[in-house]
Amino acid sequence: MSPTSFNLIDVIAVLQKRSKSILIFVIVSMLITIVTLFIVPKYYRSTTVVIPASPALADKARLFNSNIQNLYSFLGNSDDTETLMGIAKLDTVYYQLIDEFKLVDYYKTEGENNNIKRKKTIKLLQKDIEINKTEFNQLKIVVWTKDKELSKNIANRMIGIIEETEQNMWKEVYQNNQKQLDESIKDLEVQYQKISDSLSINTNAFKKEMLESQRQSALEQIKQYQKSSNEIKLAIATTPPALYVIEKAMASASADKPNFTVDLLIVLFASIVFAMIVALIYERNQTN
């Protein structure tokens, strides 16, 4: 046997010679791993998958023109998925989850006051939530907690908050438009009344004709604005979905972390390889 290297026969000989030590090391490693796996906390995973709805569905014209309805796709594009991801990662979403599920107590977060506790809890919660965009343009949310029901509830509620947030954005735009329309209607009604008052006291035929034309124009505008206002009210009342749930989060039947079978196989393989390498190095040092 060379003092600087091993050939295959030497390797086999060394491994046979040190087989007992290798076996003891592997057994000890496996026992330590088994004890550790029983001690470490069990984590449960819940996964939900959604796809974005097309923002074009929020257009109020879809309610009043069947031809336009046929032009809209129900599904959003990649940019719409990015929008959902952006909403999902907002601190306001995490704060809402923290308050609704009392996660400060769950994580046992310490702090001088509740605001500091909530801020620290956000960082802990973010570590337990995975938000990804899949190759199929889907938004995938994975939640890990020590309570399988909590994982499921957080994942499903998070989707609900995302949808509510985007729907409220659409509603806010329409509500602002409706407010402006209602103010314009009030101004036109005042203008209409003034014209009517002038028309009742004016005796000049030409001027009466002009005033009547102005009054009719104001009346037509009022009708048009009222129609638009009613359409917006209907659009607000029938806000379309912001997303479609492909896979609803379900509670895990058993703990997902640690995975006993996988972890034990990894430790078994790693301990065997490590023990063999140590045995060979030790033998070469002894030889040298």
Low-pLDDT residue spans: none
Mean pLDDT: 86
Distance between the termini: 11 Å
Query: Largest sheet, if any?
Result: 4 strands, antiparallel
Count of discrete alpha- or pi-helical segments spanning 4 or more residues: 10
SS strand fraction:
5-15%
The number of E-state strands comes to 4
- What string, H for helix and E for strand, traces the elements in order? HHEHHHHHEEHHEH
Order of strands, main sheet, comes to: 2-3-1-4
Q: What general outline do the C-alpha atoms trace?
A: rod-shaped
Structural class: alpha+beta
CATH class descriptor of the largest domain:
Alpha Beta
Number of domains: 2
Radius of gyration based on Cα positions: 35 Å
The CATH topology of the largest domain is Bacterial polysaccharide co-polymerase-like
CATH architecture designation of the largest domain:
2-Layer Sandwich
Helix share of residues?
55-70%
Describe the structure.
- The protein is α+β, with helices and mostly antiparallel strands.
- The chain has two domains: 1-40 and 259-288, no CATH class; 41-257, Bacterial polysaccharide co-polymerase-like (2-Layer Sandwich).
- The chain has helices at 8-17, 19-39, 66-69, 78-88, 91-100, 103-107, 114-127, 148-201, 205-237, 260-287, and strands spanning 44-52, 129-133, 139-145, 243-247.
- The protein has a four-stranded antiparallel β-sheet with strand order 2-3-1-4.
- Strand 2 (129-133) and strand 3 (139-145) form a beta hairpin.
- Helix 5 packs across helix 7 and helix 5 (91-100) packs across helix 8.
